[in-house]
């Protein structure tokens, strides 16, 4: 028996990505599965219905959801969408299980097998499925373009008959996937780039991209290759070392994050007051509280001393063709683990990528932290 895989039009404000692209549809078709999309599911990402070959296009979301054995999505399914799915349906996409307990309860009670792609272990084998990386890459790139656009200066050095323009100085805070892409992008635009992180291994990565590593004397490697939260003392040390430094920069792009925590506060209001008029901060940690004290998510503000602070949200959705292509490929690579030769689905619960990414299955919450959050501590 072959399964039916569906995707519907994303309805969250500003969400232009789609979880199934024509290329991935073709790959899935070759795996003997049936495909259904809602009319215009890919339109906002510039994939018209006609680009999806051998895919059934249905007029509304309800029909696509009701037919689904597997639902691919970008944003978590809404309560209404969950109510339309058959028991036993598998959902794959972002789920943000800690943000909406009601949704997790609905998935549990509707006996949906839900997978949260942000829970995927960051192992070598999982790299091709890693939506956090593929989308952070786009966010890092876009953040620099936004900064360049907002800056009253050029990024590159220019030598003209009217005189020489010095290159902008850009500082990238945090050198994970987004930060390293931001460094590479700012370099391509011709800025003088420097960066720092609290994980010591980033020094070499920053330098290998041709940027200068800013030594702030704080090292905070945590578990699993991530950073840990800084102690109050370390934070004060980081801020003191940085305060002097940022007086000379034109552009700051902040990307620092600690898994499961609010974004670390790195740039205080006082530090912003010390910056030059015309400087720009683009804070891509805005959605999780911001790396800068003055950041407002979804807004661009200008301080009294003339510093522009931009807190963009869902940056990946602003490059929806490539973001969707990479995201859909990530989902395909994950789904491929479970598709049989006959186009049926067989979930291998002994595979840690399947087991650790699952949030609800057969009427139960499988992810321990989410279970505690939604159902309270178990005796
Ligand atoms: P992230 O989004 O969790 O954090 C972004 C960066 O902020 C990190 O580099 C972190 O060290 C840094 N940071 C945290 N607190 C800071 C502070 N106070 N000051 C400065 N910087 C701070 O990170 P990410 O981009 O998801 O990547 C984290 C790690 O995971 C990296 O080691 C990366 O190489 C690794 N990774 C592995 C895989 C894989 O093997 N599948 C895939 C992607 C990323």
Keywords:
alpha/beta, 12 helices, 31% helix, Rossmann fold, 379 residues, 8-stranded mixed sheet, binds nicotinamide-adenine-dinucleotide, 2 domains
Could you characterize the architecture of this molecule?
This protein has 379 residues and is an alpha/beta fold. It has two domains: 4-129 and 320-377, 3-Layer(aba) Sandwich (Rossmann fold), CATH 3.40.50.720; 139-313, Rossmann fold (3-Layer(aba) Sandwich), CATH 3.40.50. The protein has helices at residues 22-29, 61-67, 79-84, 101-109, 131-150, 177-188, 202-208, 232-245, 269-273, 320-336, 352-357, 368-375, and strands at residues 4-7, 34-38, 56-58, 70-72, 90-93, 113-116, 158-160, 163-165, 169-173, 192-196, 212-213, 251-254, 280-283, 300-302, 308-310, 358-361, 364-365. Helix 1 (22-29) runs parallel beside helix 10 (320-336), helix 5 (131-150) runs parallel beside helix 6 (177-188) and helix 5 packs antiparallel against helix 10. It is globular, with a radius of gyration of 22 Å. The model has no long low-confidence stretch (mean pLDDT 96). Bound molecules: nicotinamide-adenine-dinucleotide.
Total strand count, please? 17
For the report, how would you describe the main beta sheet? 8 strands, mixed
Helix count equals 12
Q: Could you name the CATH class of the largest domain? A: Alpha Beta
Strand order of the largest sheet: 3-2-1-4-5-6-16-17
> What's the quaternary structure here?
single chain
Mean of all residue-level pLDDT scores? 96
Element order: H for helix, E for strand: EHEEHEHEHEHEEEHEHEHEHEEEHHEEH
Which stretches are low in confidence, meaning pLDDT under 50 for 5 or more residues running? none
Strand content: 15-25%
Ligand catalogue: nicotinamide-adenine-dinucleotide
Distance between the termini: 41 Å
Radius of gyration, in angstroms, nearest whole number: 22 Å
Number of domains: 2
Choose one word for the global shape.
globular
Could you tell me the CATH topology label of the largest domain: Rossmann fold
Structural class: alpha/beta
CATH-derived architecture of the largest domain:
3-Layer(aba) Sandwich
- Into which percent range does the helicity of residues fall? 25-40%
Relevant CATH superfamily of the largest domain: NAD(P)-binding Rossmann-like Domain
């Amino acid at each position: 028996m072959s399964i039916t895989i569906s995707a519907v039009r994303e309805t969250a404000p500003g969400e232009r990505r789609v979880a199934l692209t024509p290329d991935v549809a073709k790959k899935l078709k070759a795996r003997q599965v049936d495909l259904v999309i809602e009319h215009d599911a890919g339109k906002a990402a510039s994939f018209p219905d006609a680009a999806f070959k051998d895919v059934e296009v249905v007029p509304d979301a309800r029909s696509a959801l009701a037919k689904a054995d597997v639902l691919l999505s970008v944003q978590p399914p809404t309560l209404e969408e969950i109510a339309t799915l058959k028991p036993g349906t598998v959902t794959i996409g972002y789920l943000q299980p800690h943000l909406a307990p009601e949704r997790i309860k609905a998935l549990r009670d509707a006996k949906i097998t839900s997978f949260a792609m942000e829970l995927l272990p960051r192992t070598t084998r999982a790299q091709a499925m890693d939506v956090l990386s593929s989308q952070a890459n786009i966010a890092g790139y876009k953040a620099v373009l936004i900064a360049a656009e907002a800056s009253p200066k050029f990024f590159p050095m220019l030598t003209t008959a009217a005189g020489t323009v010095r290159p902008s100085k850009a500082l990238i805070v945090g050198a994970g996937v987004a930060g390293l892409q931001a460094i590479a992008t700012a370099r391509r635009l011709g800025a003088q780039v420097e960066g720092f992180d609290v994980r010591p291994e980033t020094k070499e990565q920053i330098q290998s991209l041709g940027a200068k590593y800013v030594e702030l004397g704080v090292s905070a490697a945590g578990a699993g290759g991530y950073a840990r939260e800084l102690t109050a003392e370390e934070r004060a040390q980081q801020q003191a070392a940085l305060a002097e430094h940022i007086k000379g920069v034109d552009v700051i792009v902040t990307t620092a994050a600690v898994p499961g925590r609010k974004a670390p506060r790195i740039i205080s209001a006082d530090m912003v007051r010390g910056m030059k008029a015309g400087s720009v901060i683009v804070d891509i940690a805005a959605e999780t509280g911001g790396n800068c004290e003055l950041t407002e998510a979804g807004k661009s503000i200008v301080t009294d001393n003339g510093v522009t602070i931009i807190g963009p949200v869902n940056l990946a959705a602003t490059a929806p063709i490539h973001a969707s292509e990479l995201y859909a490929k990530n989902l395909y690579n994950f789904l491929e683990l479970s598709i049989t030769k006959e186009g049926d689905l067989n979930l291998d619960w002994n595979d840690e990528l399947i087991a650790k990414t699952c949030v609800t299955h057969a009427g139960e919450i499988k992810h321990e932290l989410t279970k505690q959050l939604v159902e309270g501590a178990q005796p």
